[in-house]
Write a structure and sequence with these properties.
mainly beta, single chain, globular, 16-stranded antiparallel beta barrel, two-stranded parallel ribbon, about 375 residues, 18 strands, 1 helix, Porin
Length: about 375
């Protein structure tokens, strides 16, 4: 079920040198924003991780590991209305908490986004049309996927690369985003499901659609919802059993509600989601999940944050509790001390608890403008 767009695999040192050379070359390209030009932003993260999962099967390593992640955001603004945008991610494994349950090592490079877009903005309305490799339009967390924006280290349980209801990988397709006053709308058509992303070179690609809407009740307080539907299985999936119906006849459905509230030093994000993956030869899979996230700024340099959530599906259920303290040494740096505890019927003691220290730094945007 896991299928991602992997750009390259190479030794970590070589990738780091390549990134540093690129950023050094761009450091001279600074100018004021104009009608057209090139811009590059970046987020770099380093982690120290400690968890019993790291030494358990299938990883079988040490309890402590180090990790690195870089996300580059190149943008080419062709004109006032047209632009090319991308997000390219490189990370060592394990980096994400979900990597702990796999045996994969090395360095991965992923294409998170690569789109051509047309945009128009008026006084109280806007229209953006995008095509290419897109993030899923379902849910709200993917807008906070960058480590510099996410106040904690882990992500909600329904998001990720492996066997989740909402992929963090990109999907090939097209999307329309619009806003009118306090209302925002989005519609997306893709080549595969957010529950099982497929590369444009893969077999078993099927048209999927997603839609969402939101309403800003007042400044800082927004509520929204989203939905997706379409075939999700492929014939190489471990969940595609002999005698099963054709993949095109087995849809996945996702329903979600989300809310964001911010006032003064307080910020709250919450989501509730329900997923259904249809089968014929085994019971249909159903899952319900939700979380609430709270951040409190203590001073310009310090904040505390927590995220509490649950998952309940056809086969199991668990809860997780995550808390972090954040410190900003400088305007572009962030240090997080994070602890996450998981509890469930198949989780014994602290075997899935994780302690992490994460250092994040941002660069740019560095720009070269053409008048």
């Amino acid at each position: 079920m896991r299928s991602r767009i992997v750009l390259l695999r190479m030794p970590l040192l070589r990738v780091l040198l390549l990134l540093l050379c690129l950023l050094a070359a761009m450091a001279e390209l600074r100018a004021q924003e104009a009608v057209s030009g090139f811009e590059l932003g970046a987020t770099f993260s380093g982690e120290a991780l400690s968890s019993p999962q790291l030494s358990a099967a299938p990883r079988n390593g040490d309890d402590v590991a180090g990790a690195f992640r870089a996300v580059l955001y190149p943008t080419w603004k062709v004109s006032r209305n047209w632009s090319f945008n991308a997000a390219i991610e490189g990370y060592s494994q394990p980096y994400f908490y979900e990597d702990f349950s796999t045996s994969e090592h090395g360095f991965e490079v992923e294409l998170l986004q690569a789109t051509v877009s047309y945009s128009r903005f008026w006084e109280n309305r806007s229209l953006v049309v995008r095509a290419g490799q897109l993030s899923s339009a379902f849910g709200s967390f993917l807008l906070r996927y960058d480590d510099a924006v996410n106040p904690l280290v882990d992500m909600p349980a329904s998001y990720g690369y492996y066997f989740h209801g909402v992929t963090t990988a990109s999907l090939a397709g097209a999307e329309v985003d619009a806003s009118l006053g306090k209302v925002d709308l989005r519609t997306q058509f893709t080549n595969s499901s957010p529950a099982n992303p497929r590369s444009i070179l893969d077999t078993d690609q099927f048209l999927n659609w997603a839609a969402g809407a939101g309403y800003t009740i007042r400044q800082g307080f927004r509520v929204g919802g989203s939905i997706y539907r379409g075939p999700y299985l492929d014939r190489q999936s471990p969940f595609y059993l002999p005698g099963e119906a054709e993949p095109k006849d087995l849809p996945a459905t996702g329903l979600g509600l989300d809310a964001q509230w911010g006032h003064g030093p307080w910020n709250v994000n919450a989501e509730w989601q329900r997923f259904q993956m249809d089968y014929d030869v085994m019971p249909t899979f159903r899952e319900e999940t939700g979380y609430g996230e709270l951040r409190r700024v203590l001073s310009p340099r310090w904040y505390v944050a927590t995220r509490l959530g649950y998952v309940s599906n056809t086969y199991a259920g668990w809860r997780w509790y995550e808390a972090a303290v954040g410190f900003r040494p400088g305007r572009h740096e962030l240090v997080k001390l994070d602890y996450e505890a998981k509890q469930g019927s198949e989780i014994y003691g602290a075997q899935q608890n994780t302690l992490a220290i994460q250092f994040v730094t941002t660069l740019g945007p560095l720009s070269f403008a053409a008048h």
